[in-house]
Amino acid sequence: MNNGLTVTLNRNTEYLKKILGEMTDDDMLVSTGESNTIGWIIGHIAFYRGRIAVKLNKECQFREIEKAFERGAPKNKNLKINRTDALADFIARGEKIAEAINALGEEGLKEKIDAVIPGTDGTLEGYIAYLLWHEVFHLGQIDLIKAAAGKGGIK
Description:
By secondary structure, the chain is mainly α. The chain is built from 4 helices and no strands. Helix 1 (4-20) runs antiparallel to helix 3 (83-109). The two termini are 31 Å apart.
């Protein structure tokens, strides 16, 4: 199925790969001003992909470190993130989500759920769409942090 959600999911994955490019684990500690580090942001969006997968009844293993990526967790600019592991989690969880979306079909995505998400219609599709928008927001944030820190941006 060529669903707009899966298209966005896959594009976000490709953008993140491009944004990270040749960055190292040490580069994951880059931040500007009061921003979170690039590594924290990647861990955060990978964590929430896991949450979507669980919402879609897909098994998802979470790493102990991921407790630090939940919304509202105390900021820790010294938290060392393994770039390869975080990217692998992001990709694998995206594959699980795409699989679930394709299995649900259009009718399954219209199912009402018990999550209150701003600006959505209370459906599973709205929930997923909001969290994909959330990824896009953070992908832009990472690119801006990279550019401000002299690490280049998407060209």
